[in-house]
Automatic annotation (TrEMBL):
<protein>
    <submittedName>
        <fullName>LacI family transcription regulator</fullName>
    </submittedName>
</protein>
<dbReference type="InterPro" id="IPR010982">
    <property type="entry name" value="Lambda_DNA-bd_dom_sf"/>
</dbReference>
<dbReference type="InterPro" id="IPR028082">
    <property type="entry name" value="Peripla_BP_I"/>
</dbReference>
<keyword id="KW-0678">Repressor</keyword>
<dbReference type="Pfam" id="PF13377">
    <property type="entry name" value="Peripla_BP_3"/>
</dbReference>
<dbReference type="GO" id="GO:0003700">
    <property type="term" value="F:DNA-binding transcription factor activity"/>
</dbReference>
<keyword id="KW-0804">Transcription</keyword>
<feature type="domain" description="HTH lacI-type">
    <location>
        <begin position="11"/>
        <end position="65"/>
    </location>
</feature>
<feature type="region of interest" description="Disordered">
    <location>
        <begin position="1"/>
        <end position="20"/>
    </location>
</feature>
<dbReference type="InterPro" id="IPR046335">
    <property type="entry name" value="LacI/GalR-like_sensor"/>
</dbReference>
<feature type="compositionally biased region" description="Basic and acidic residues">
    <location>
        <begin position="1"/>
        <end position="17"/>
    </location>
</feature>
<dbReference type="GO" id="GO:0000976">
    <property type="term" value="F:transcription cis-regulatory region binding"/>
</dbReference>
<keyword id="KW-0805">Transcription regulation</keyword>
<keyword id="KW-0238">DNA-binding</keyword>
<dbReference type="InterPro" id="IPR000843">
    <property type="entry name" value="HTH_LacI"/>
</dbReference>
<dbReference type="Pfam" id="PF00356">
    <property type="entry name" value="LacI"/>
</dbReference>
Length: 357
């Protein structure tokens, strides 16, 4: 005779309903975020479910409701801390709204199309693409199958996908005005990916403003949004016979690498011999060892806008593409020479430089 315990079937919603003295539909509502059920009834159902070891069957629920309560999120396979902070913030925000996140990694150099072939094999209610490009072909395909797509920190020309970005162009214009006011003589820009709308917008704003101020020669290198790419680009710039004394990197990840190269390889005093400015205001930018001047991307605000765009589309209250821009500010720290005038102290104590149009 076997000593093994007898098989025990998993508790069902019917079992919970019987134990709690409610209908099976009430059990379903109790475990559906936002559904109508009184607090007392919900408490009784949850207590019965806990006693029986009941867990809602999400697969069965998705067949009934037509929703998987899952959001697909793609993130580049890159060490940039901004991407990981965005992923964590999006995951937490969707969890509060009752949605789980299914994460996919994309190759930054290939864009999202290859990974989307994989994503579309899964049952997800919407897609959020973090810092990932999207072809018009896939944007249109997602629209045709009714799958909401929100691009985060990127934008597309297609009206089939919504987007949430920071103030890329205006932020770069502000950086250019700040550096020019700091009496720099030679300027350089370290671009991200050539395919990135974010990098292009920042480059256009930077070059446009400097040329308005009479600056004709601006060096340019491509860092691919990576530390290794930025190191190579900055070595090339600082090895020139007349190296730049002001370098704007398209994101903080590259700017931190630029600071390391300038200090360690070239023995420069960053903030005096050369000014280095980034874009994003990641946590490491505040570290005293870097003390990076950077234009902020308000991550919490961007996440709030992106999640709202997804939920509005799922609820049917947004039927056209939304292109949203979250306001940021230039935060002045020690990695760049400070202008003699024009600086201001914000309410939170940060030293800032005013936005320009």
């Amino acid at each position: 005779m076997s000593d093994a315990p007898p098989d025990r079937r998993p508790a069902t919603a019917h079992d919970v309903a019987k134990a709690a003295g409610v209908s099976q539909s009430a059990v379903s509502r109790a475990f559906t975020p936002g559904a109508s059920v009184s607090p007392a009834t919900r408490e009784r159902i949850v207590a019965a479910a806990r006693a029986l070891g009941y867990r809602p069957n999400l697969v069965a629920r998705s067949l009934i409701t037509g929703r998987a309560n899952l959001i697909g999120v793609t993130v580049p396979a890159n060490a940039n801390p901004f991407y990981h902070a965005a992923l964590n913030a999006l995951t937490a925000a969707f969890a509060r709204a009752g949605y789980g996140v299914l994460m996919f990694t994309s190759d930054p150099l290939r864009g999202s199309d290859p990974v989307l072939e994989e994503v579309l094999r899964y049952r997800v209610d919407a897609l959020v693409l973090i810092s990932t490009s999207l072809s018009s072909h896939f944007a249109d395909e997602c629209m045709n199958i009714g799958l909401p797509v929100v691009m985060f920190n990127r934008k597309t020309d297609s009206d089939a996908a919504s987007s949430v970005t920071g103030q890329n162009r205006e932020g770069a214009r502000t950086i250019a005005a700040f550096l020019h006011a700091g009496r720099h003589k030679r300027y350089a820009y370290v671009a991200g990916l050539e395919s990135s709308s974010t990098s292009r917008d920042r480059e256009e704003g930077f070059f446009e403003t400097l040329r308005e101020k009479g600056v004709k020669a601006i060096e340019r290198r491509v860092g691919q949004y990576t530390a290794a790419g930025a190191e190579e680009a900055v070595v090339s710039l600082l090895s020139a016979s007349k190296p730049p004394d002001a370098i704007f990197c398209a994101n903080d990840h590259m700017a931190l690498a630029a600071i390391s190269v300038a200090r360690v390889r070239f023995g420069l005093n960053v903030g005096e011999d050369v000014s280095i400015v980034g874009f994003d205001d990641i946590d490491m930018a505040r570290w005293p060892v870097f003390d990076l001047t950077t234009f902020s991307q308000p991550l919490d605000d961007m996440v709030r806008r992106a999640v709202a765009a997804v939920l509005d589309q799922l609820n049917g209250t947004l039927d056209t593409a939304l292109h949203d821009e979250a306001p940021g500010r230039l935060i002045v720290r020690g990695s760049a020479r400070k202008p003699r005038t024009g600086l201001a102290t914000a309410d939170d104590g940060a030293l800032t430089w005013p936005m320009r149009g």
